[in-house]
TrEMBL record:
PANTHER family to which the protein is assigned, alphabetical: BIOFILM ARCHITECTURE MAINTENANCE PROTEIN MBAA, DIGUANYLATE CYCLASE DGCP
Domain EAL: 166-419
Residue stretches making up the GGDEF domain: 25-157
Signal peptide boundaries: none
Taxonomic path: Bacteria, Pseudomonadati, Pseudomonadota, Betaproteobacteria, Burkholderiales
Organism: Paraburkholderia bengalensis
InterPro entries, A to Z: Biofilm_reg_signaling (IPR052155), EAL_dom (IPR001633), EAL_sf (IPR035919), GGDEF_dom (IPR000160), Nucleotide_cyclase (IPR029787), Rev_trsase/Diguanyl_cyclase (IPR043128)
The name this protein goes by in its record: Bifunctional diguanylate cyclase/phosphodiesterase
Lineage: superkingdom: Bacteria
Amino acid sequence: MFDALTGLYSRAYVIERAALLLNSSCTAALFINLDDFRRVNETAGYESGDRVLRAVAHRLAGAARAGDLIARSGSDEFLVLIDRCEAAELARYAQRVIALIGAPFAIDGQYFTVGASVGIAFRSEGGIDTGGLVRNAEMAMRTAKRRGRNRLQFFTQDIQGEMERRIKIESALPQALAQGEFALAWQPIVEREPVRTVCAEALLRWTHGELGAISPAQFVPIAERTGLIERLGDWVLEQACVRAEQWRWSVAPDLCVAVNISPLQLNRRFVSKVAHILESSGLSPAALELEITEGAPLPDTSAVISSMSAIAGMGVKFVIDDFGTGFSSLSYLRRFAVHGLKIDRSFVAGLPHESRSIAIVEGMLKIAHSMGLTVTAEGVETQEQAECLRDYGVDRLQGFLFGRPLEHAGFIDDFRRRAGRDSQAL
Ligand code: C2E
Ligand code: MG
Ligand code: MG
C-alpha cells in the first residue's frame, strides 16, 4: 500500500482504489519521471539519491491540491491522480511541479539539480479505466522525454499511434535481417572542383511488410539499445565493401565508400571484423571511410582508442559525422585520430545568408584545416549553398543538389552520367 522510502502510496494501490479514495472517478493522471536522477546516484551514492527522492515526494505533496492522490510509481517515477480538473488548470499544475522539482536539493552541503518530464492524460466523459489513464500519461511522459525533457506533454491519439509503431518496430527488428528486409542506398559525395563523385555513402534502408519504409534515425537507436547494432553494422560493412569493390573493378577505380558506424561497435571484435571484411571483399583499406556520428556519445575508454588506432593503422579513415551537433565536437578532434569531419546540415541550411551559420562554418573550417582534416558539407540542397561552401574552402560536398540516396543500379547510372558530363565539359 505504501512505498517504504517516500511514505507515498504505491502505484498499484492508487490505481486499484482511485474511485474510492477520490470520492468520484479520477479525471486526470500526471506521470512524472525525473530527468538526470541517475547522475545523483552515480556521483553522490544511493544514500543521497534516496534523500533526493524523499525531498521530491515532499515537494509533490506541497504542490498537490486537497484530495489528490500521490504515489511513487517506480524508482524515479511518481504519479498524481486528480479529481475534477480542467485541462488548463492541469497544465499550470504540471508547470508548478516541474518548477518545484527543478529547484536545487541541498543534501549534506552539496546541491543537486534534477528535472522532471511530465505526461498528462485527461479523461473525457466515460472512456478508459484508471489503469489505462495512467498508461496514457506514461506514454505522454516518454514523448516529453524524447522531445527534450524537463517539459510537460498531454497525451494525444497521435502519441498512442507513434508508441504502437515504436513497439512494432522494436519487436520486428530482430528478425528483419534474417528476412532480408534491409538494403543499402547510396549517396554521392563530390569533390569541390572539378565536381566529381569521389565517394559513396552507404545509408541503411529497412522496408517492413506492414509498416513500410522505416527511417534509420528511428531504428538505429533501437538497435543500439538492444545490442543488435553489432550484427546489423557487420552486415552493412560487408555489403558496402563488396559493392564498392565491384564498382572499383567495373566503373569507378578511385571511388571510396563511407559507412556509418555506431560508437557502440568500436570494440576489439570490430577490429578483427574490419580486417576480415577488407580481406574477403578485396577492398583496399584506403578506399574505406568509417563515419561516427557525434550525436551519440563516444566513450573515451582506452579500448575505444586502441580499436580506432588499430583500424586506422590498417589504412582506414575515420570521419566525424554531424559535426557540431553533439556536445563534444572539439574534444573529439583532440582525442581521436580522425581524418575528417562532416559539417552537419543544420549549419549548411543557414547558408548563404544567416550570419551565425556563416561564422560557425568558417570557424569549423579554420580549425579543421589547421589540423589537416578533410571537410565535407552535408545536406547541400541549393546552388547558392554550394557556391558559398566552395568559396569558404570546403573540400567535399554532399546533398540532394548532387544526388539523393539511390539503390545501387540507380547510383551507378547517375555516376556514369555525371562522369560522362564532366569529361565532355573538360
Ligand atoms: P547521416 O549519416 O548524417 O546521413 C545523412 C542523412 O541526411 C541521410 O538520412 C540522408 O538521406 C539525408 N540527406 C542527405 N542529403 C540531404 C539533403 O540535401 N537534405 C536533406 N534534408 N537530407 C539529406 P537517412 O538515410 O535517413 O539517415 C539518417 C541517419 O541514420 C544517418 O545520418 C546516420 O546517422 C544513420 N544511419 C544511416 N545508415 C546507417 C548505418 O548503416 N549504420 C548506422 N549506425 N547509422 C546509420
Ligand atoms: Mg553519415
Ligand atoms: Mg550526417
